[in-house]
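User: quick one, sequence for these tokens?
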């Protein structure tokens, strides 16, 4: 006998499947980080999946999505988004306006009024920009499209506040476990997350920012790294040498006084 299902039952089934997929992905990422710290090599979360899993591609996509969620501008449930005081908002916008005017090469044809109006509707974005300002990232608008704009680290050299850092938490945990006496300055992913921003996309770094100016001529910057690269133990770092701009792979545990990171925040245009 065939069984009939209501549309609501199917919707509930789909929601349940998506929820389980996300839960499984988060657990695999956590287990992989723990194993990475123990053995000193990066473990691919997908390698820990059950071999009998019949939806391995969906799980792969879920892991990639969870790994990419390093922008805590979306706050934990029940936690209010951080917000500046009226005086801090005014000061942050004034500082950004002055830099925006001074660096027209980064955003030709973009009106400050439109940027300002969009930011005034997003208090969490202003909070993040203020955090970047305090850390010496010299945030500015460096990319725009029909949907919004990107504000990122536009300091000429990689910010001093983040130098000598490893790439992410897994690399940091390995260092603490295996080289407890070696000094380093935390990890880039965590520092970006604490500001409510993401690491800068390597394509935006190479094909947008570096084509509008000259950055990282004396330093290097950790950049956003896809899971397929990070799972090999490496992460992307960008720099410029003359007219040559690159985003090369480095051991994610590598750190020195010339290496920091560049961050970026996506903001949608106000209606």
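Assistant:
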């Amino acid at each position: 006998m065939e069984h009939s299902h209501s549309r609501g039952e199917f919707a509930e089934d789909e929601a349940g499947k998506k929820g389980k997929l996300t839960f499984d992905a988060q657990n695999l990422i956590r287990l992989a980080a723990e194993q990475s710290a123990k053995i000193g090599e990066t473990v691919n979360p997908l390698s820990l999946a059950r071999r009998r899993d019949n939806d391995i591609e969906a799980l792969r996509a879920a892991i990639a999505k969870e790994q990419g969620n390093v922008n805590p501008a979306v706050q934990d449930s029940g936690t209010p988004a951080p917000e500046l005081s009226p005086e801090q908002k005014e000061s942050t916008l004034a500082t950004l306006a002055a830099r925006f005017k001074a660096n027209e090469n980064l955003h030709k044809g973009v009106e400050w009024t439109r940027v300002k109006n969009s930011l005034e509707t997003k208090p969490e974005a202003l909070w993040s920009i203020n955090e970047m300002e305090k850390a010496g990232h010299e945030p500015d608008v460096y990319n725009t499209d029909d949907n919004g704009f990107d504000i990122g680290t536009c300091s000429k050299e990689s910010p001093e506040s983040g130098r000598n850092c490893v790439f992410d938490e897994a690399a940091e945990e390995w260092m603490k476990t295996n080289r407890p006496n070696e000094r380093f300055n935390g990890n880039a992913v965590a520092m970006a997350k604490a500001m409510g921003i993401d690491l800068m996309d390597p394509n935006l770094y190479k094909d947008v920012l570096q084509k509008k100016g000259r950055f990282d001529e004396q330093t290097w910057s950790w950049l956003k790294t896809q899971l397929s690269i990070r799972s090999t133990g490496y992460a992307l770092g960008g720099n410029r040498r003359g007219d040559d701009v690159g985003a090369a792979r480095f051991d994610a545990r590598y750190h020195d006084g010339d290496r920091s990171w560049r961050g970026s925040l996506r903001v949608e245009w106000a209606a």
